[in-house]
Design a protein that fits this description.
The structure is a single chain. By secondary structure, this protein is of the alpha+beta class. It folds into three domains: 140 residues, D-Maltodextrin-Binding Protein, domain 2; 109 residues, Dipeptide-binding Protein, Domain 1 (Dipeptide-binding Protein, domain 1, Alpha-Beta Complex); 217 residues, Dipeptide-binding Protein, Domain 3 (Dipeptide-binding Protein, domain 3), CATH 3.10.105.10. The protein is built from 16 helices and 21 strands. The strands form six sheets. A seven-stranded mixed β-sheet has the order 8-9-10-1-11-19-12, with helices on both faces. A four-stranded antiparallel β-sheet has the order 4-5-7-6, covered by helices on one side. Helix 1 packs across helix 6, helix 8 runs antiparallel to helix 10 and helix 15 runs antiparallel to helix 16. The protein is globular and about 70 Å long. It starts with 8 loop residues before the first helix and ends in a 5-residue tail after the last strand.
Length: 539
C-alpha cells in the first residue's frame, strides 16, 4: 500500500498561489537591480534568460562539482576537450592529442591565439597549474581518480601539455571537458588561496561568455566574448541567470515568458508543459554538473545505526523505490539497482543483489541487529539532512520508515548548508546527493566509493565507506584500456557494493529541460549556450 505524500492537488494549488507572490517579489527585485545599472534582461532578442535553481555562491568550477556553479561557469570556461552528443571527446582548448607509451602518456596540442577574457594569452602553464593546484586537490571527481595515477604534467612549450601516468589509463579523455576539468587562469590564482581567491567572485575564462555582474540571490549576468576562438560563436549577446530557488517559480516564469530556459522540470508540471504552445521539452541524461546521474541517500557509516550492514539492508528493504519514482519523480527516471546507472549501458550489470520492498523482512533484520521497538513503537531516530529541494522525497522517506519503527527527523537546509554539513563537517546521520556517474565509472563512481576520497570535499565519499576490495577493483578497471576488458571488473564491483550497501541508491534520473520554442541550438547533454539563438520574430 503506497503512502500519499502531503503535497498533492489542493496543497499544490495553495503552494502555487504562494509561489506566485514570491515570483512577483523576485521579479520586482530584479527590475530594481536592472534600473540601478544592470542591463535589461529583455531589451534585446539576443539575450537568453535562464532560471537558476540556487545561488552559485562562487564561480570556481575547478574546486567543486556543484550543479549550482556549473550552469554559469560552463559558459565562462573551457576544458581541454569537449563532449559531443554521444559523450565522445572532441577538440576544445586542445585542437588535437596523441596517446603514447601504451596509454601512459597523453600529449595535448593546444590552440594558438586563445586569450583569457582579460586579454592575457592562454598557455600550457595554465593547464599544469589548474590540475596541480586546484583539480587534483579540491575537485572530488578529479582528485579521486587522477591523483593516485598521474605521474606528472610536462609543458615543453606554451602550446603543449603532456600528461604522464604510472600505468595505462584509458578514461582520461572523457574527464577533460568543462564540467570535469575547467582550466583556470594561472595569473589570477598563483600565490593566493584557490578556495578564496578574488577571481572566484569575478571569474575570467576563455569561454564564449564573459562575466559582467553578480547580485547574490538575484542574478548573474554574462556578455558575449567577442574574441572567442570559435568563429561565429556565441550567437547570443548576453546570458542572464535569474536565481529562482523554487522549481515551481521557474516553471511559472517560463510560462509567463520571463525566462527562456529551465534545466529541470518538476514531474508534476510535465503533462501541462508538454501541451503548452510555445514551450519545448527535451529529455537528457547529461548537462552542467555531470551526466548519467543518480539520486542517492547517504548513510553515515562511521556511527550507529548505519554502521551496521543489517540496519542498512533493513532501511533499504523498507523503502518503496518504485513508489518514489512514480510519486516523487513522476517517472523521470527508474529505480536504481546499484552504484552504476543502467543508462551507462556498457558498464552496467543487472547481476547484483536486489532489495525488493519487504516491510516484514526489514523488521526481522532490525530485530536481529538489536534494534527492537520500544513501548512507543520506535526502534531509533535518525536525522535526514537534505536540501530544501528534496523536501518531497524526505517526507516520503519519513512516512515509509514509520512502518518499520524508524523515526526520521527531517532537517531541510539551504543547498550549500546541506552540502557543508554532510560532506565537509560530516555531522549527520542520513544525507542526500545527486551523484553523476559521467560517461565513465572512473569519473563519477570512483569518487563516491574509493577510500582515499574520504575527506572534507563536496560530493566525495560522504558515507565514509572503506573497502580494500572495492579500492582494488576500481584501480584495476582504470588500468585497462578497452571497455570490453573493463566491464567485467565493474560487474564485480557492482556485486560487491550491493552486498555491502554503503549507499541507498534511489533512482537513475532522467531530467527534462524546457525552453521557449523561439529558441534553438541548445546542447542539453553538455549544458552549453554558445550555439543557442532566438529565431527572427521571437519575443
Amino acid at each position: 500500500m503506497g503512502y500519499n505524500p502531503p503535497l498533492m492537488s489542493a496543497e499544490l494549488r495553495r503552494s502555487r498561489a504562494a509561489t506566485a507572490a514570491v515570483l512577483v517579489i523576485a521579479m520586482a527585485a530584479f527590475e530594481g537591480c536592472r534600473r540601478s545599472g544592470s542591463a535589461d534582461a529583455r531589451d534585446s532578442l539576443r539575450t537568453l534568460v535562464v532560471a537558476q535553481g540556487n545561488d552559485p555562491g562562487s564561480f570556481n568550477p575547478a574546486i567543486t562539482t556543484s550543479g549550482n556553479v556549473h550552469p554559469v561557469t560552463d559558459q565562462i570556461f573551457n576544458g581541454l576537450v569537449g563532449l559531443d552528443e554521444r559523450l565522445n571527446p572532441v577538440p576544445e582548448l586542445a585542437e588535437r592529442w596523441d596517446v603514447g607509451n601504451d596509454g601512459r602518456a597523453y600529449t595535448f596540442h593546444l590552440r594558438r591565439g586563445v586569450e583569457w577574457h582579460d586579454g592575457r594569452p592562454f598557455t600550457s602553464a595554465d593547464v599544469k597549474f589548474t590540475f596541480e593546484q586546484a583539480l587534483l586537490k579540491y575537485h572530488s571527481r578529479t582528485r579521486a581518480a587522477l591523483a593516485p595515477v598521474l605521474a606528472g604534467i610536462d609543458t615543453p612549450d606554451p602550446h603543449t601539455a603532456v600528461f604522464r601516468f604510472h600505468h595505462p589509463y584509458g578514461p582520461l579523455l572523457q574527464r577533460l571537458d568543462v564540467v570535469e576539468a575547467s582550466i583556470l587562469p594561472k595569473h589570477l590564482f598563483e600565490g593566493v588561496d584557490v578556495m578564496s581567491a578574488p577571481a572566484n567572485l569575478a571569474p575570467v575564462g576563455t569561454g564564449p561568455f564573459r562575466f559582467v555582474k553578480y547580485e547574490k540571490g538575484l542574478f548573474v549576468e554574462l556578455e558575449r566574448n567577442p574574441r572567442y576562438f570559435r568563429p561565429g560563436l556565441p550567437r547570443m549577446e548576453r546570458v542572464v541567470f535569474r536565481v529562482l530557488q523554487s522549481a515551481i517559480t521557474g516553471v511559472m516564469a517560463l510560462e509567463r515568458g520571463e525566462v527562456d530556459y529551465i534545466s529541470s522540470v518538476p514531474g508534476a508540471d510535465l503533462p501541462r508543459l508538454s501541451t503548452t504552445p510555445g514551450i519545448t521539452l527535451v529529455r537528457s541524461a547529461g548537462g552542467s554538473g555531470g551526466s548519467f546521474c543518480q539520486e542517492v541517500l547517504i548513510p553515515n557509516l562511521t556511527r550507529p545505526p548505519f554502521a551496521s550492514r543489517d540496519v542498512r539492508r533493513a532501511f533499504y528493504t523498507a523503502l518503496d523505490r518504485s513508489f518514489i519514482a512514480e510519486r516523487v519523480y513522476f517517472g523521470q527516471g527508474t529505480p536504481s539497482t546499484g552504484p552504476i546507472t543502467r543508462k551507462l549501458e556498457w558498464a552496467y550489470s543487472p547481476d547484483v543483489r536486489t532489495y525488493p520492498t519487504d516491510t516484514a523482512g526489514a523488521e526481522r533484520l532490525l530485530d536481529g541487529a538489536g534494534y527492537r521497538k520500544g513501548t512507543d513503537g520506535v526502534r531509533f531516530t535518525v536525522t535526514f539532512t537534505h536540501p530544501a529541494t528534496a523536501a518531497r522525497l524526505a517526507q516520503v522517506v519519513r512516512e515509509q520508515m514509520k512502518r518499520v519503527g524508524i523515526d526520521v527527523a527531517l532537517e531541510g537546509l539551504d543547498f550549500n548548508a546541506s552540502v557543508e554539513k554532510v560532506f565537509v563537517r560530516k555531522t549527520f546521520d542520513l544525507g542526500f546527493a545527486s551523484f553523476c556517474n559521467g560517461p565513465d565509472p572512473e569519473i563519477g563512481v570512483r569518487r563516491v566509493y574509493v577510500s582515499s576520497n574520504i575527506g572534507p570535499f563536496p560530493f566525495s565519499n560522504g558515507a565514509g565507506y572503506r573497502s580494500v576490495e572495492a579500492d582494488a577493483l576500481l584501480d584495476r578497471a582504470a588500468t585497462l584500456l578497452a571497455r570490453s576488458d573493463r566491464a567485467p571488473v565493474y560487474a564485480t564491483l557492482q556485486r560487491l557494493l550491493t552486498e555491502d550497501l554503503p549507499y541507498f541508491w534511489i533512482i537513475d534520473s532522467d531530467g527534462t529541460r524546457a525552453f521557449r520554442s523561439t529558441f534553438t541550438g541548445f546542447r542539453p547533454w553538455a549544458g552549453g549556450f554558445a550555439e543557442a539563438v532566438e529565431r527572427a520574430g521571437g519575443s
